[in-house]
Amino acid sequence: MDQMKAWYESKTVWGALIAVSSSLLQIKGIELGADMQADLADIAVTLAGAAGGLLAIYGRLTAAAGIRGK
């Protein structure tokens, strides 16, 4: 496992956050099944990746310095 990725690209991190949230919701009387939790983790990873890409594009467009090729 030599490859690194951002925390928000990790299904494990999102799964853990959703599991904790699910437990907190259960205290309030709202239950999320395992399938729903897995679906939410997939959606969260997809949205976080898209947001990261948009943020990178925004950063490039608003950067003060240009990019120089070799």
Can you put this structure into words, describing what you see?
By secondary structure, the chain is mainly α. The protein has a domain of 28 residues. The protein is 66% helix and 0% strand. It has two helices and no strands. The longest helix is centred in the last third of the chain and has 29 residues.
List the helices and strands and how they pair.
Elements: H1 11-27, H2 34-62
User: SSE string, helix = H, strand = E?
Assistant: HH
Work out the strand percent. under 5%
Say how many strands there are. 0
Q: Report the mean per-residue pLDDT as an integer.
A: 85
N/C terminus separation: 31 Å
Overall, the morphology is elongated
Q: What are the defining features of this structure?
A:
single chain, 70 residues, mainly alpha, 0% strand
Quick description:
This protein is mostly helical and 70 residues long.
